[in-house]
Amino acid sequence: MNNHRYSSFFNNRSGMFMLMAWMTLMPWFSTVSLSYLALEHEELIRSFSLLQWLCFFTICIFSMGLAITPTTFISLVCGYFLGYHAIIPVVLSYQLASLVGYGLAQKLDNHTIDWVEEKFPKSAPIFANVESRQWLTTFLARISPALPFGLMNVVLAVSGVRFGPFFLSGLLGMLPRTLFFIWLGAQAPMLVEAVQSNDYFGLFIVLSVAGIFGLFYILKPKP
After folding, report:
1. How confident is the model at residue 47 (pLDDT cuts 50, 70, 90)?
2. What's the per-residue H, E or C state across the chain?
3. How sure is the predictor about 2, in pLDDT bands with cuts at 50, 70 and 90?
């Protein structure tokens, strides 16, 4: 078999290690750094003009799409500074960010599924289930906050999920967590309380368990 046609950034250990390290460490580092900057310059941020907010959301599109900033953090901070006016720009930013990640993953990918199935033959039924249940798979992957936004962009793209299910079902899956974190930020009297709040743990656990359990149930190979 010609292994050259399976060449891909994702089809080797070093590539996968780099991807996982980036998506694990970078969101944590950016959250800590941006939280400090936001706390130090809260008054300045509150005085942002419409153009400055447009620039901010444009940057967020690429930072979220490249797994630099966590989506929940962006929702929380925008809810704090903009209140419920943040809903539309945050949702639009999420969707455009997902397209950045989806497009980039497709550019870097070349027959990743074939490579994985060759290395792990038992994975073939899982990918078959993804292909036959793309809408539900995408929805469950998005609704769980425990599944990183940037990582799911890559996983769904290389798993062969079509653009329609990826975009529309992803939107429906992201809405509950997005609206909740915007609401949480809008209710916080101080930014530090919003960032450090433990009020979201209950919903975080419920959505995470529901999403992960649902994915396991629909994707597991049938006996």
Report:
1. very high
2. CCHHHHCCCCCCHHHHHHHHHHHHHHHHHHHHHHHHHHHHCHHHHHCCCHHHHHHHHHHHHHHHHCCCCCHHHHHHHHHHHHHHHHHHHHHHHHHHHHHHHHHHHHHHCCCHHHHHHHHCHHHHHHHHHHHHCHHHHHHHHHHCCCCCHHHHHHHHHHCCCCHHHHHHHHHHHHHHHHHHHHHHHHHCCCHHHHHHCCCCHHHHHHHHHHHHHHHHHHHCCCC
3. very low
